[in-house]
Amino acid sequence: MLEAILEKSTLCVLIVDDYEPFRQFIAAKLQTNPELRIVKEACDGAEAVQQAEELQPDLILLDIGLPILNGIEAARRIRRVSPTSKILFVTENRSRDIVEAALSTGAGGYVVKSNAGSELVPAIEAVLCGKQFVSAGLNDRNSIDTANRALHERIVAPSRLQNVERHELRLCGDDAAFVDVLAQSIEATLENRDAIVVIVTESHRTSLLQKLRVDGVDVDSAVERRDLALLDVADSLSMVTVNAATDENPSVGMPQVIIEAVRTAKDQRGHVAVA
Fold first, then answer.
1. Domain identity same for 13 and 79
2. Which of 105, 192, 95 has the alpha carbon at shortest distance from 144?
3. Of 43, 139, 169, 242, which sits with the fewest C-beta atoms within 10 Å of its C-beta?
4. In sequence order, what are the residues at sequence separation of 6 or more whose Cβ sits closer than 8 angstroms to the Cβ of residue 108?
5. pLDDT per residue over 97-155, tens digit each?
6. C-alpha gyration radius of the chain
7. Environment class of 69 (CB within 10 Å of its CB; exposed 0-12, middle 13-18, buried 19+)
8. Between the ranges 163-167, 210-214, 264-268, where is the mean pLDDT highest?
9. Does 142 map to a domain?
10. What is the mean pLDDT of residues 214-241?
11. Could you read off the pLDDT of 32-90 as tens digits, one per residue?
């Protein structure tokens, strides 16, 4: 147990996540370790930095997709204002680049939310002992790239409308994590001045729009420029003719909004993503 590892009998923990049910889940997991005491919860990156400076917690459990200030930038600032605090990222983002960026801040670990049930406590113990912990599957880059490439080859047939550079498989533990990951993808795409078409359910679309606006994305302008299109799953399926696309006419059976996004991206010498 932690008390046998560290001299302090009680370790102060700051939980940072903008999704309250997941904060409650973490709190429930920590209750199994009486040596860990939650001193504060924060729901955005700026608040996390402020609380870290004031409380100087022993451990900070930090999400990446946070309002106001993302978790990676928050971690950089926390290292300056609370250098002794150990940081463990707990997020649903599985991107190799994001993992590397997160650990480059000096954080001690990276746990994928969907693995938190089994990995959170071992990760906390490792990080508090000065060791590094990374979720299973994120360390083996070659196997991840191979699996993603094989999956992509199975489900995406090549055509003249697409030029896929990389495909990432992300598994989300709940709706909030799904919306969080999707919002990050949209924001990154728009920042690159590319176009993106998102096909989601009505409930997810509502949550996604709310998340994007909280993060400061000018959704209305992006839609007006045709850089962003949000489609309903049922409507999109009704518009697509299965196996209709051919090499001679690859746009047959494809929703008009996707065709327009491709044309817009082509005019701007950019790319179009479909999620």
1. yes
2. 95
3. 242
4. 86, 87, 88, 126, 127, 130, 131, 132, 133
5. 899 999 999 999 999 998 999 999 999 999 999 999 999 878 654 434 433 443 333 33
6. 21
7. middle
8. 210-214
9. no
10. 72
11. 888 999 999 999 999 999 999 999 999 999 999 898 899 999 999 999 999 999 999 99
> 3-state DSSP call for residue 213?
helix
Q: Does one domain contain both 82 and 177?
A: no
Distance CA 91, CA 172 (A): 10
Global model pTM greater than 0.90:
no
CATH number of the CATH domain containing 70: 3.40.50.2300
Supply the range of the domain harboring residue 93: 2-134
- Cα separation, 45 vs 62, in Å, equals 9
The one-letter amino acid at 274: V
Domain count across the chain: 2
Is there a single domain that holds both residue 8 and residue 128? yes
The predicted pLDDT at position 272 comes to 55
DSSP 269: T
128 and 174 in a common domain: no
Could you tell me which residues come within 8 angstroms of residue 258 by beta carbon, excluding any fewer than 6 positions away? 197, 229, 272, 274
Question: Tokens representing 102?
Answer: 């997160």
Residue 116 resides in a domain: yes
Among 56, 124, 61, 110, residue whose Cα is nearest residue 84 = 56
Q: What pLDDT, on the 0 to 100 scale, is given for residue 254?
A: 46
Residues 128 and 61 placed together within one structural domain of the fold:
yes
Contact 23, 45 (CB under 8 A): no
